[in-house]
Amino acid sequence: MPTGGPRANRSGAPGLYLHLPFCSAICPYCDFSVLRAGVPARRRFVDHLVAEVPLAAREWRDPTPFDTVYLGGGTPSLLPPGDLARVLDAGREHLALAPAAWVFLEANPEDVTAAACAEWRGLGVRTLSLGVQSFSDDALRFLGRRHDGKRARAATDTALAAGFDTVSVDLIFGLPDQTPETWRRDLMAVVDVGPGHVSCYQLTIHPRTRFGVSARRGQLSEMPEREQATLFDLTHRVLADAGFSAYEVSNFARSPDHESRHNRKYWDHTPYLGLGPSAHSLATADADGTRRAHRWWNERRTLPWERRVAAGERPIAGEERLGRRAMATEALLLGLRTTAGVDLDAFAVRYGIDVLAANDALVARLATEGRLVVTSGPTGRRLVPTRSGLAVADGLAAAFDVPLPT
Ligand code: SF4
After folding, report:
1. Which residues constitute the domain of residue 333?
2. Pocket flag, ligand 1, residue 73 (CB < 6 Å)
3. Is 32 in the pocket of ligand 1 (CB under 6 A)?
4. What CATH number is given to the structural domain containing 358?
5. Is residue 285 in a domain?
6. Do 153 and 25 lie in a common domain?
7. pLDDT in tens, 216-252
């Protein structure tokens, strides 16, 4: 049993991530590996992605079939369904994909039509994840998006009517001029359209983006922490009142069936294979769980990635070996970012450390401050962050001592 993260829908089977980097315009806050390119370059890219699959498959040792496939990016919905099918077919040919593997597709609202949804469903897509970001025209203009609020609503309605198992809506908060009232309106809009899953991310200004340039010039800054905390709390309150359960810092589902089967693998050290530029992979190195692991990542930029694939090489740019201590530290961090928290008994078995005993004064202080609680029940003892603990989860985890041999 992994040590943290939500409990529902956990399979232990690996997940496959495919990075499709194309976007019709590059948003000023985006720090992903993305680019704009015409149809010939997109086609060439798909040829290379198809070619990367057998290169990676030769060295992927985990015999368990992949039970999730995530088409992310970038804007995968920009590619014709026939190209997406070629990539999925390569996965089926060279990797063990479970017949009922759950396929996720990221889409931008401007690409969502009833016909496109029907084609995506024909490819086996079960979760459509919409890059809505806001239902407010002003916020969307600030974020440099090509759709407006009306289009965002229409796209969500169309996706919901198309019969996907889950429609997920991504929103961004923490815009410089945003007030609790304007953010509440966005939250109420998503509640009103009624998807099964919502992700709410805080705007971060990355140095290598256009917003980063504006920030260096003093024209833009991130929202002060205190105001961010107010919006974070508001997010959790409004969505909880509307029937969404938070299961991770940024993720909310109407029921456990709508929780992301794929993202959970990142949070509990389930193995995953990432293909395409910038994609990350993780393989665990011991049979009974996740005490040691190997993580590697691909060339970030598309051209060097393509050159290496064309030469028959794996396009790996870097790697790290994670020992027991690194795994334990990550497991604590990832667990404290989820509402299920950290399973203390499983943690003790896996890593040989009693987190409570090693951090008794810290846990007592954080409990008094209302940041976390220790629960015990039929599934054992758990260290569970409260809402105010979730808001500062990374800082909480950093305060813990994980006294393990390296
Ligand atoms: S659409 Fe998404 S992936 Fe593409 S540039 Fe904008 S934020 Fe980045």
Report:
1. 324-406
2. yes
3. yes
4. 1.10.10.920
5. no
6. yes
7. 999 999 999 999 999 999 999 999 999 999 999 999 9
The CA 305 to ligand 1 mean position distance, Å, reads 20
Asked if residue 30 has its Cβ within 6 Å of ligand 1, the reply is yes
Of the three residues 265, 281, 299, the one that is the final residue of a domain is 265
Number of domains in the chain: 2
Q: Which residues of 7-16 are buried (b: 16+ CB within 10 A; e: fewer)?
A: beebbebbbb
The pTM of this model reads 0.94
Q: How many angstroms is it from 259 CA to the middle of ligand 1?
A: 23
Q: Tell whether ligand 1 has an atom less than 6 A from the beta carbon of residue 27.
A: yes
Q: From the CA of 214, how far away is ligand 1's center (Å)?
A: 18
Quick check: is 284 in a domain? Answer: no
- Return contacts of 236-244, CB within 8 angstroms, 24+ apart: 236/387, 236/390, 238/184, 238/187, 238/188, 238/191, 239/187, 239/191, 239/198, 239/200, 242/187, 242/191, 244/191, 244/198
